[in-house]
Amino acid sequence: MKAFALAAACVATGALLAGCSSAGKPSNNDDSAFVYLLDRKGTWVENKVDTLPTLPTDANLLPFEVSGNTPLHFAIDPKSLSVGDDGVVRYTVVVTSPGGARNVSYQGIRCDTYEWRQYAALNADHDDWDRTVANDFSRIENGALNAYQAALYQDYMCANKIPLGSAKQIVHNIRYKRTQTSLIH
After folding, report:
1. Of residues 183 and 112, which shows the higher confidence score?
2. Which of 65, 118, 148, 151 has the smallest number of CB atoms closer than 10 Å to its CB?
3. 84 exposed, middle or buried (CB, 10 Å; 0-12, 13-18, 19+)?
4. Which residues contact 155 (CB under 8 A, 6 or more apart)?
């Protein structure tokens, strides 16, 4: 009886091994092309930005801290902030120098890739948007003195590669200076 069980087990194992190969022949597939599930690039598509927000007014601007080493002042227009279903947080940022010069632009931060892009900036006449300055997504710079995109990403807009909530929640956090580190208990 033991001999019969052993023979049956050997036959079953042989049949199983034969079924695992392609007609019993070694594979010529290149295993170096293997990609782990979590490393696969998705088919991400950015939402179209057809309409731009109205230009910001000083009364609505919400300041945020970037670095104690910069003389520049940074602020967000809360009325322009939106969170797209593509994972991009879009906003108007106003950067003001100590002399009063201002740089106003409409930008987006892509949470899943730690990237930012510019959609438009204030035109030379200071009365409308200029789309000719738009650029593609590029990596956010951490070490730059005025790396405000990094501050926005890390402090208010993104965590774990996703937006930190609705536009209303992000604006609320900026208004009350509730950064990610201040929320840790």
Report:
1. 112
2. 65
3. middle
4. 64, 65, 179, 180, 181
Decide: 126 and 84 in contact? Cβ < 8 Å.
no
CATH of the domain at 84: 2.40.128
Please give the single-letter amino acid code of residue 32.
S
Full residue range of the structural domain in which residue 119 is found: 58-175
- Per-residue pLDDT tens digits for 16-40: 455 554 455 555 666 566 666 666 6
State the pairing for strand pair 158-159/115-122. Answer: unpaired
Domain membership of residue 41 (yes or no) is no
Residue 109 lies in a domain: yes
